Task: structure prediction
Amino acid sequence: MIPESFKQDLLNRIDIVDVISRYVQLKKGGANYLGLCPFHNEKSPSFSVSPAKQFYHCFGCGVHGNAIGFLMAYTALGYVDDESGRRWSAVVRGDYVDGQTFPKLYATYDQGAALPIGHSSVWVRSAAGLSPGDPAMPFANFFFGGFGNNYVDHLDEKRYRAWYSFPGATLNEIGGRNFVKSALEWNLPPWRFRRAGIPAFYATWARPAVFVSALGTNLDAADARRTVTNAGGQIDFRFGVLSVLDLTLSVGGAMALERGHAPRREAMISLKILR
Ligand SMILES: [Zn+2]
Result:
């Protein structure tokens, strides 16, 4: 999370016209600069940048914001999501509980590739972890389950991408001292709405995705081992309200399968308020 004070400081030092003109050809028109909106298809410019207010606004699709907002929206390739790349992390941590330390080690590796159909991508997200603690102690275990979205919050809407989420199973339902997990995700081409709804409340885009994953825990202990697979999907709808508020409504569903268990299903709905 970037501290708000740092963002403010950064915004005071940069000029939005400089930033945006690196990506969009801008022409001066009166007090503002105008260009073709990079967030929707258009032939005549309705994308306006105000040097006085340090804000951009599109009269065609309603996108707006400051320089940081522009960069975040623009560089999130395909404008709504990362389309390719690699990310990894390795974490060693110790949870100190009731005089005992529970060390844990885990690593994640994500790799994504863009598909040749409009802003569609495939990602493989893998993770593995190990905890040497006493298996009977909850803090010595990793837990998985659920989409992880709360009904209303401001966190990332694609929570199923987290290494500890496992849609279909209930929250923290699957535990183990060691685990291997891999997920395959297909982000379908986003739908962009030209202008759906009334000007005060309009849909900007929708982003559908489907995924399948597999998780194994307690791989070294046959009696405690669990192998679970799941399949699901999620669609995020972005709405603008009165040009000042962005909302993301997410709906998802998933099914988890495990030998010896009836199939489990999860439905998820959440609303994020972005500004
Ligand atoms: Zn636009």
About this structure: The first helix runs from residue 4 to 13. The mean pLDDT is 86. The chain has three helices and 17 strands.
